[in-house]
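User: Thanks for the earlier help. One more: Pyridoxamine 5'-phosphate oxidase. Can you show the sequence and predicted structure together?

Assistant: Of course, both are below.
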Amino acid sequence: MAWWSDLVKAEPEFAERVRARFSVRKHGTMATLRRDGSPRISGTEFQFDEDGELRLGSMPGSLKARDLLRDPRVALHCPTEDTPEDDPGSWGGDAKIAGRAHEEPTAEDGSHRFRIEVTEVVLTRVGEPSDHLVIESWHPDRGITRHKRY
């Protein structure tokens, strides 16, 4: 198992750039699996806690919480940010995290809190010069890889 803190230890600069993408706005997107196996997209807030872990929460009995309790696989997407058409190189990038949600003890109000086990982290950005994309990905078992797409 790998946690966000493991990525920070292994690739601190990459982890910081990914975290920055998740911090551009308050709400991001998560994908879970419904009972029938089809995807569900939900808005959510992410927390990179002081102890170095990635967590998310939800209201009591929410559909996304029920999805995660049934099947912990989850994909997280950073908040999106518009890029000026005249300056595509200023785009900060797009970050995604895939993993498994582990429920933690909840508050008295019945809300849900999940710690995210990380299975993949991907950061896509415009390269220099701005004629290609750079796709960086990290997996716990093989580390970081970088690819260019023209």
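User: Great, one quick takeaway?

Assistant: The radius of gyration is 16 Å.
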